[in-house]
User: Fold these one by one.
Assistant:
Number 1:
Amino acid sequence: MQEVLTAADRGDDLRARVARLVMTPLFQNCVIGLILFNAITLGLETSASITAQIGGLLHVVDRIVLVLFTIEVALRIFAFRGRFFRDPWGIFDFLIVTIAWIPATGPLSVLRALRILRVLRLISVVPSMRLVVEAMLHALPGMGSIVMLMGLIFYVSAVMATKLFAEVSPDRFGSMGLSLYTLFQMMTLESWSEANVRPILPQMPYAWMFFVPFILIATFVMLNLFIGVIVDSIQTLRKQRDAELPETIEAEARQREMEETSHALLDEIRALRREVAALRETQAASPPER
């Protein structure tokens, strides 16, 4: 029984040490550097000349980096156990590394392109990037109304554009689908005037009265609405984290105090066990009394 307890104590102590290791800034910076290095090597593989010269070396480096990523995730799973899979970012890292181990041969050769997904792990490692992604996900409910409003504006505008300009520009506004695609192109401000509006103006001089308001509403107003929702979400998350920071610091302090206390108790128990074992050895070695 004592040997089982000792093994369990050693396992908990090792798990705590690994947890402290993976949470250190030095370890996190090493992971960031490894991700950036892997991004560079994967980018070099897109060059035919470089691949012809050092393609074998790049493949070996890619395998080594993948093994290091796997070890890093395994250490986190060992340290945090179930808590690792309760963290969405932990699941994200686990899936990214798992996908990289899928054989990319034969019909699955297309999966080789998915290796670049490992670079996305930078999002889970860098706190500021993680905050932006969490803010975007947090803002999705608020974006729903904006998306519905934009869809309504696009539908009404596409119907109007098809009715007004189908005969003048059938290749761009000849049908509902063409009008929707052309209006989306105009929303991105890609050649909206030269390619879409100016060819219509000679035959319909007042066509600008439709296109200019559409550009102002679809591009500038809607874009600012999206940005406003995301910025508000980022500020809200920051306020929540700032409010939770003192509680987190206090909880971490209590956790450290409990760990120190538990380590001290374990040391005392081990010392007592050694003393008991020594007493038993002494009694066993002493001659029996007559």
Number 2:
Amino acid sequence: MEFKHIEYFIETCRHKSISQAAESLYISQQALSRCIANMESELGCTIFCRTVKGISLTEEGKYLYHQFQPLVTEFQNTLNQTVSHFEHRPQRLSFACAPLIFGFLGPELLLTFQEEHPEILLDMKELPDADCDAYVLQSEQHFGLLAIPENKHGARLDYITVRTQPLYLYVHKNHPLAKEKAVNFGMLKGESFLMLDKKSYYRKMIYSYSRPYGYQPAPAFESSDINHICSLVNTGKGIFLATKNPAIHVLFQNIAMVPFDDETLTYSIAFVFQNYEKLPEASKKFMEYILEHTKDRP
């Protein structure tokens, strides 16, 4: 007899019903009935009495139950303890993340997740957009966190959107554009654009938005450090485009943030991956945590 069939037998005894036992075992009633019939055939005896009121054990069935019930219970307890042990052992969770993503989502999320899940050790690889994509493409168990225009997600990898926010113009508070209620890309022609480096998808975004207005901005300066770029905006050395970040006003008090008049100009932070089902459980747990704790944030 297979041990699995003995487990099925013990579960049937517990429920005193083939239909209820089958439901708890996630198998069909027919499959469970065949299993019991095969056991009876192998043992050469009847182990259940079947009546219109249900089933009951025969003497042979009672003997079988008393022999195997302690073994099945011990096995299930040992299995549960083993699963619990491996679930709570320290495991390293590596993922790629574009620079300053958690500056927008909230850096405390990393700390609070670590406090709630001490068994998961976070290893965040801060990489430019293109390198994030390359990291995710290395393995179906890898995932990344990117911020790109919403309509660009899904072009390369599967994704789950975390947050979508409108794009703002970052400009010195004394610049004439800072006095506008809203701007468009046509009004930015001739301005000194400060851009993220070439491994970011930022440049492609700027070009795609400016093309309908008949120009392509020439980068006045590029860097992978947004704080460096904001410091230049703060001294009137150029303009920059990003989502609204209240923390910027604390660090750079000369920066004005002006909305665009086109509501389709958005930036979307999203998890990217090859196949969600093949991600480790720790990865799914982290992603679910971030999604849950950012859904009500402004």
Number 3:
Amino acid sequence: MKIGFIGLGNVGGKLAGSLLRNGFDLTVRDLDHKVAEPFLEQGAKWADTPREMAEACDMVITCLPSPAASAAVVEGDDGVLSGLSEGKVWAEMSTTDEAEVKRLGALVMARGADAVDCPVSGGCHRAATGNIAIFCGGSRDAFEKVLPILTALGRRILHTGELGSASVLKVMTNYLATANLVTLCEALVTSKSAGMDLNTTFEAIKISSGNSFVHETESQVILNGSRDINFTMDLVVKDISLFQEVADRAGIPLEVSPLLIEIFKDGMSRYGGRELSPNIIKRLEDTCGIEIQAPGFPPEMTDDEPEAPGYEVVPVGRASI
């Protein structure tokens, strides 16, 4: 199967790298040709337009920073849509809006092609090693068609239901991760101010009911001083705002979500939208005149889960076995 990949950013570049590493016939495209050069040197082909890619490939994957960017790539002049035909697949791996992916998906399916939304979850470091989790929304037939590609990209793959369902679950999980990050920042600053050793604090959280994936990854990069998880404050605001829109459409009067959006918008106003997301802790550090860093803490983020040679299709009742 010939695969096209549009969007070679923090996550997309790592996913496209997995496709190359696994021997797929890959065509790439990005607004910045320079980021594509390493892929071209390893044997990938270049598409001058999304339409050209869709005409040449069996499956086109988009992994872009916003719903607006995806819409421009799919339905713009010389867009993906104009190059699709019966039997082909558009796979949206961006973190995007449920309503928008359904709208674009309907246009794709009207041309006889399949549409799936298949965002990833688990962090950029796991995207690079193939340990990432993937949600996939779309018909069962479309899911089965793209499964061989998804298994080259991630380890745990969950068919979530109809098109758009994966996008809802993705922004929900990002919302939960954001809430966890903010509370961890408060916990670390409070523990430091109370005289606790931060290495000991990290271990106490890790072996307790307060532990989480976010603690084991983002607390590490806070304490080792790098603050780098390849994710920025503007992307946090985009993702949690998409979750808020899901809740608004359902008429759910959320209380924590608006506060998180306010906190990160304040962080953007202070430090800039491209500031690394764990540096949201700087709001408290600056206010309290305190630095949260642990001398001797492991300098690199670790992942206790080894690189996976295989994959797991996560069962959900009878429908996903």
